[in-house]
Amino acid sequence: MSGGEQKPERYYVGVDVGTGSVRAALVDQSGVLLAFADQPIKNWEPQFNHHEQSSEDIWAACCVVTKKVVQGIDLNQIRGLGFDATCSLVVLDKQFHPLPVNQEGDSHRNVIMWLDHRAVSQVNRINETKHSVLQYVGGVMSVEMQAPKLLWLKENLREICWDKAGHFFDLPDFLSWKATGVTARSLCSLVCKWTYSAEKGWDDSFWKMIGLEDFVADNYSKIGNQVLPPGASLGNGLTPEAARDLGLLPGIAVAASLIDAHAGGLGVIGADVRGHGLICEGQPVTSRLAVICGTSSCHMGISKDPIFVPGVWGPYFSAMVPGFWLNEGGQSVTGKLIDHMVQGHAAFPELQVKATARCQSIYAYLNSHLDLIKKAQPVGFLTVDLHVWPDFHGNRSPLADLTLKGMVTGLKLSQDLDDLAILYLATVQAIALGTRFIIEAMEAAGHSISTLFLCGGLSKNPLFVQMHADITGMPVVLSQEVESVLVGAAVLGACASGDFASVQIRKTKHRAIK
Ligand SMILES: Nc1ncnc2c1ncn2[C@@H]1O[C@H](COP(=O)(O)OP(=O)(O)O)[C@@H](O)[C@H]1O
Ligand SMILES: O=C(CO)[C@H](O)[C@H](O)COP(=O)(O)O
Asked: Which residues belong to any copy of the Carbohydrate kinase FGGY N-terminal domain (predicted)?
């Protein structure tokens, strides 16, 4: 290149598969998001607590959004591709065709979603074993992890699914396989959701004890016997077929993936907070808690040494930030609970009409309505008589009790828009109190947390953010780049391309709410 001529810009594509939609972003070398697209994905609930998706529908949505974000770009400048996704279970046969995960035999629905609670009997039996691997999931395995779901398939769908199955993937690993043909699994998925140990590998005795000795017998080929750190480059990169699907060039680097919450954690936890007078300025990164809040909320705290927190997942080594232990607290439904409460209320149609008339989202309308009805008082006074217990889908952390149910106390006979707004506020407050409950458990076990870093769809809701600051008593830091999860995914692609040395913590620009 002659003097003065600029090097061509290098770009990376990040793809984030959430519960309700798939998002893609085109990101440059400084982590700036240049283009964004999203696309809804299908969810089926054929029975109560059974939640299913289609891996073909998800891949098709990945293709739509990727094609959109690279429009008008010289494809030769795109250096890498990274995926993150929810940790749903994808089932394929020996020829990599979808297999049904339902009694109806519908092979289109071949994904048991992370929030599926069908495997209650299986997880109870797994927990009764008191096997030592359970120490690394907070002492109690969650029904949302993969081992109980696999056992359910063996016990309930033997002929149409289990006996024919060739590959069980965590969704992030399915996506990297689909892009490259490489079946290697990410350390992130296997450590966090499959009982794999970064130091010791699979524990044969666990799988034998719970009745899934089949995996040991075939050397774990169906659930992964090649494991790579997130961001590692896979095979020869994008296959010609996947390149055609996605509208990219074959051979570009594709990374071993991350779970969505972990991509978000990586995207925000290293924020450069200088100049805000925040307590975490100058303190180690271990004083920070990343909270990734979408359909669910995930609370990611890291430490130099392992910390065992009853009811909080982990400690997991190198599953998010290389060289650090991770604890992951969580609330299984947060965004979904808020949507459920608001949409199920008698005044919801009126809310929709009024919000549309003002060209506002329903949440922006509700927030301004609360401002109006609280008058001169702090908003918290509106809920002195109304309280929500938010465990409508059980309690993930710190009680680790899937049998818990939700509760509302203080209901009146009226069902007008004021009541809806106040119920919405009480729900948001209950979720924030749940976060405080998780932080208290983490601190009692040895974490020392001073600042929250929020991202995900709910971090776009100012009321949600303010309630987290007020109720935890901690400042909340928000990224200037609202789609931090996608930046995390694109960073994976940059690592796989060799342009970034590692999935290092990002020092992105942020703003603080106190
Ligand atoms: N601008 C917004 N204001 C308020 N809530 C929002 C906004 N955008 C998204 N949400 C809420 O965030 C949740 C979805 O977050 P998202 O991160 O997209 O989820 P997922 O990754 O699970 O698909 C929904 O419950 C939705 O109501
Ligand atoms: O357990 C998880 C992360 O470890 C789930 O994947 C996550 O909770 C679902 O993500 P989202 O709420 O963003 O759809």
From this structure: 11-267
Residues of the chain with pLDDT under 70: 1-7, 504-510
Q: Distance, CA 87 to ligand 2 centroid (Å)?
A: 7
Q: Is the CB of 339 under 6 A from ligand 1?
A: yes
Q: What is the pLDDT of residue 507?
A: 63
As for the ipTM of the complex, it is: 0.98
- Could you give the CA distance from residue 437 to residue 466 in angstroms, rounded to a whole number? 17
pLDDT attached to residue 272: 79
pLDDT digits (tens, 9 = 90+) for 236-273: 999 999 999 999 999 999 999 999 999 999 888 887 78
Mutate to test the pocket of ligand 2, among 173, 186, 260 (most ligand atoms within 8 A of CB): 260
Nearest atom in ligand 1 to the alpha carbon of residue 260 is 21
Set out the domains of the chain in order of their start, with CATH numbers: 11-254 (3.30.420.40), 261-333+448-513 (3.30.420.40), 335-433 (1.20.58.2240)
Quote the CA–CA distance of 311 and 330 in Å, as a whole number: 10
What is the C-alpha separation between 186 and 318, in angstroms, rounded? 11
Pocket lining: 459 vs ligand 2, CB cutoff 6 Å: no
For the whole model, what pTM was predicted? 0.96
CB of 177 sitting under 6 A from ligand 2: no
Report yes or no: 243 and 482 within 8 Å, Cβ to Cβ: no
Round the CA-based radius of gyration of the chain to a whole number and report it. 22
Ligand 1 neighbourhood includes 39 CB (under 6 angstroms): no
- Give yes or no for a contact between 167 and 182, defined as CB atoms under 8 angstroms apart: no
User: Is the CB of 264 inside a 6 Å radius of any atom of ligand 1?
Assistant: no
Phi and psi (nearest 5°) for 472?
-85, -20
